[in-house]
Amino acid sequence: MTKTIGYIRTSKNNQNLGVEVQKEALNRYKIDCFFIEQVSGRKENRKELNKALEVLEKGDTLVIYKIDRLGRSTKQLVNIMSELQERGINLISIKENIDTSTPMGKVIFTILSAIAELEADYISERTKEALAILKENGVQLGNKGLDERTINKIKKLYVETDLTQKEIAEKCDVCIKTVYNIKKRYHLTR
């Protein structure tokens, strides 16, 4: 049996009127369970929204009063909407007349997703360009790497002692993964 979950959010504790207005609008959808919180939409960690998302299953519906109740940033909205779509959960936003169980609702959702994907591509492109410029200007990216002296010390300790990789890592002030990588790269055996 499918469920219809209502999510209500207001920004401040004194917005009880906002809760009542939203609840009244949502009640037209035969809500099985309400999740209500009073927290800023810009906050990433919204406990009641997370609880609502946990309860929802394929075929269920999440009903909200207005799309900005889910989040204030495009990134937040797209992440939530993508999760709902992947899990087969419908979304109804009353004020915007969005219902992803209908063909038009799916189109609107697809357009919003495409815009978000375009934004993500632009961010990736700008990041790559910035890294290329840094590299051209001689800025070293990533780890500096190990000097020969440390590499030789690790090799010697590995081959000539019975120390564990963890002990070697501690002696050489590197992580265990570094010892493992050197062992593998130089085909070290005991």
From TrEMBL:
An example Gene Ontology biological process: DNA integration
Domain of life: Bacteria
Pfam families associated with the record: Resolvase
PROSITE patterns linked: RECOMBINASES_2, RECOMBINASES_3
Record has Cell inner membrane as a keyword: no
Keyword DNA-binding: yes
InterPro entries per UniProt: Recombinase_CS, Resolv_N, Resolvase-like_N_sf, SSR_resolvase
Keywords recorded for this protein, A-Z: DNA integration, DNA recombination, DNA-binding
GO molecular function: DNA binding; DNA strand exchange activity
CDD domains: SR_ResInv
UniProt record similarity statement: Belongs to the site-specific recombinase resolvase family.
Name recorded for this polypeptide: Resolvase
